[in-house]
C-alpha cells in the first residue's frame, strides 16, 4: 500500500492533475492517445496517484475504491470571476463595457461576481471609445485603477485612443479584450473582426506602444499569473495595461482559481540614500543662496504621490507656490502663499512676473510641451531651475541625481531650507485683486465671463470640475477651488470629447462629489451619447454645454470653414436620451437671468437629476488667454522647415 507523505502540488501540476479535456489537435494531425499504466500480477505498486493522495488527506481509501476521479472544482472558480475579484481588490468596482461576440461569456462571468460579494458592477457604454474614457475618469477619482472590457480588434482599436490618453497622463487603466477562441491560435484561419489575415496579433502590436504590459491569455494554466501580473504592473507603473482573453475560457472552472489568491502587494520603492543626500545637499545650497526663490508644481506630482510633501516643503521654506496648468487641483489653492497658475503669457495675473523674475525656481514633476509652454515661449532659464521628476533630480546646468523618489526628496529638503519669504512679499506688493465682470443688462446676450462668475459660487468641497479641451481650459483655470474640490482636465493628450466619458467615470467612482463639467459644442458632438449612460445610472452631474457654433480653440490657432459645425438642438438631444426614463433636467439659456434660474433649479429641486444646461454665446466670445495662447501656438506650428 502507498505510504502517505506530505505533498506539495504547484498550480501548474495541479492543473495537469485535474485536467478534464485536451484541446482539439491542429488541422491535419491525429490526437495522441494518453499512456495508461496497466499493472500485472508481478508489477510493483504504482506511485501515489492523484486519487489516493486526495483521499488519504481526508480518510483512508477503501478496498473497493473506484478508479481515479478528479475532485470537484467550485463553480465560481472561473477565469472571468477571478478577474472580477482581482479588479475589485484594487478598487475597480465598476467596469465600463461594450458587448461583442468575443467577450459575451466574459461579461457573463464578470456580471456573476457581484460587488456585494467582492466583485464588480458592469456599466454598459454606448461605444468603446467612451468606455475607455470613462475608465480614465474613474482612475482619476482616486479609486486605484479604471477598467473597461470590449471585444476583439473592432472594440480594442476603438478604445485605443482613450488608452493612449491615459498612458500620456500616467493613469492606471486595465483594458480587457475578449479574444479569439484558444483553438484558433496557430490554425492559419481567418476570423471576422480582423483585417483579413490569419494573424491575431495586429491588435496586440497596436497596444504595445500605449500600454506598459500586455497579456494574451489563451490557456488556463497560467491565466491567473498573467492577469495578476498585468494588474500589479498597472499599479506599479501607473500606466494602462492590455489583457486579451480567449472567448472560450472565461466560464471554465479551473483549480488555480479556486484558491484564495495572494493579496496584491507592491514592494515600496526606496530612494538611494547616498544619491538622496547628495541631491538634497546640492539643492539646499542652490536655493539657500538665492534671493527670491519660488516653487512650481507640475502634473507628475500625482503619479509620484508627492503633493503632500510638496506643500510641507513650501510651509517650511516660505516660498510662494504656483502650479502649471495641468497640475491645477494638486496643490490646495487656499494655501496662504498660493499665487496661481504659471502658464507663461497666459498665467494668472502677477504669477508669471514673480516666477520669471525669480533667481531660482524648483519645478516639481513638470511637463514642458508646446501647450504648457505656450508655443515654447516660457521665459525661464535652465541654469536657474531645479527640475524634480518622480525618480530623479536635475540642478541647473550641473549635476543630475538618479534613484530618488520625489516625495523623499521634498521631505528631506524641507528641513534644510532657510525661511525666505522675499518672493511672496514681492507678490503681495504688486498684487491687485481681480475684478468681477460687469453684470449684463436685462435681455443682453450672455457672456462667457459672466457664466463663470456664477459657476464660482457653485463650487464647494463636495464638487469636482472637469474641463474639456478648448476655451474651457482657460476659463476653468481662473476658478478658485475650495478645499476638497476636485479638478481634472486632459492637457498632455488633449483629445476632444474626452470629458463626456471622463465625467461618467469620475462620477461613478466619486459618489461623494457632484461633478460639474464644461464642454464645447464641437467636443460634445464627438462623444455625446454617453450622457444617456449617466441618466441610466442616476448620476446628478451638471453639464454646461457652451454653444458658440464651432471649434473655437482651432479657430484661434488656424481659422477655416472646416471649424464651423452643424448646430444641434442640444437640449433636445439630451431629452431624447432621457426618453422619460430616469431623472433629467435641461435648460437652454441665452441671458444672465436665464442662467441664474437654471443654476438655482440644478442646485435646488433638481439636485438629484442629471442637469444639462446649454449656454448660447457669441462665436467670438473667447477668453483673452485663448487669443494669446492660440497665436503663440500657431506661430510654433507654422515654423518653416530647417535648412537641409
TrEMBL record:
<dbReference type="InterPro" id="IPR029035">
    <property type="entry name" value="DHS-like_NAD/FAD-binding_dom"/>
</dbReference>
<feature type="binding site">
    <location>
        <position position="550"/>
    </location>
    <ligand>
        <name>Mg(2+)</name>
    </ligand>
</feature>
<feature type="region of interest" description="Disordered">
    <location>
        <begin position="1"/>
        <end position="75"/>
    </location>
</feature>
<feature type="domain" description="Thiamine pyrophosphate enzyme N-terminal TPP-binding">
    <location>
        <begin position="78"/>
        <end position="192"/>
    </location>
</feature>
<dbReference type="Pfam" id="PF02776">
    <property type="entry name" value="TPP_enzyme_N"/>
</dbReference>
<feature type="domain" description="Thiamine pyrophosphate enzyme central">
    <location>
        <begin position="280"/>
        <end position="397"/>
    </location>
</feature>
<feature type="binding site">
    <location>
        <position position="521"/>
    </location>
    <ligand>
        <name>Mg(2+)</name>
    </ligand>
</feature>
<dbReference type="InterPro" id="IPR047213">
    <property type="entry name" value="TPP_PYR_PDC_IPDC-like"/>
</dbReference>
<feature type="domain" description="Thiamine pyrophosphate enzyme TPP-binding">
    <location>
        <begin position="491"/>
        <end position="615"/>
    </location>
</feature>
<comment type="similarity">
    <text>Belongs to the TPP enzyme family.</text>
</comment>
<dbReference type="GO" id="GO:0000287">
    <property type="term" value="F:magnesium ion binding"/>
</dbReference>
<dbReference type="GO" id="GO:0005829">
    <property type="term" value="C:cytosol"/>
</dbReference>
<keyword id="KW-0479">Metal-binding</keyword>
<protein>
    <recommendedName>
        <fullName>pyruvate decarboxylase</fullName>
        <ecNumber>4.1.1.1</ecNumber>
    </recommendedName>
</protein>
<dbReference type="InterPro" id="IPR029061">
    <property type="entry name" value="THDP-binding"/>
</dbReference>
<comment type="subunit">
    <text>Homotetramer.</text>
</comment>
<keyword id="KW-0786">Thiamine pyrophosphate</keyword>
<keyword id="KW-0460">Magnesium</keyword>
<feature type="compositionally biased region" description="Polar residues">
    <location>
        <begin position="1"/>
        <end position="18"/>
    </location>
</feature>
<dbReference type="Pfam" id="PF00205">
    <property type="entry name" value="TPP_enzyme_M"/>
</dbReference>
<dbReference type="GO" id="GO:0000949">
    <property type="term" value="P:aromatic amino acid family catabolic process to alcohol via Ehrlich pathway"/>
</dbReference>
<dbReference type="GO" id="GO:0004737">
    <property type="term" value="F:pyruvate decarboxylase activity"/>
</dbReference>
<dbReference type="GO" id="GO:0036293">
    <property type="term" value="P:response to decreased oxygen levels"/>
</dbReference>
<dbReference type="InterPro" id="IPR012001">
    <property type="entry name" value="Thiamin_PyroP_enz_TPP-bd_dom"/>
</dbReference>
<keyword id="KW-0210">Decarboxylase</keyword>
<dbReference type="InterPro" id="IPR047214">
    <property type="entry name" value="TPP_PDC_IPDC"/>
</dbReference>
<dbReference type="GO" id="GO:0006950">
    <property type="term" value="P:response to stress"/>
</dbReference>
<feature type="binding site">
    <location>
        <position position="548"/>
    </location>
    <ligand>
        <name>Mg(2+)</name>
    </ligand>
</feature>
<feature type="compositionally biased region" description="Low complexity">
    <location>
        <begin position="50"/>
        <end position="75"/>
    </location>
</feature>
<dbReference type="Pfam" id="PF02775">
    <property type="entry name" value="TPP_enzyme_C"/>
</dbReference>
<dbReference type="InterPro" id="IPR012000">
    <property type="entry name" value="Thiamin_PyroP_enz_cen_dom"/>
</dbReference>
<keyword id="KW-0456">Lyase</keyword>
<dbReference type="InterPro" id="IPR011766">
    <property type="entry name" value="TPP_enzyme_TPP-bd"/>
</dbReference>
<dbReference type="InterPro" id="IPR012110">
    <property type="entry name" value="PDC/IPDC-like"/>
</dbReference>
<dbReference type="GO" id="GO:0030976">
    <property type="term" value="F:thiamine pyrophosphate binding"/>
</dbReference>
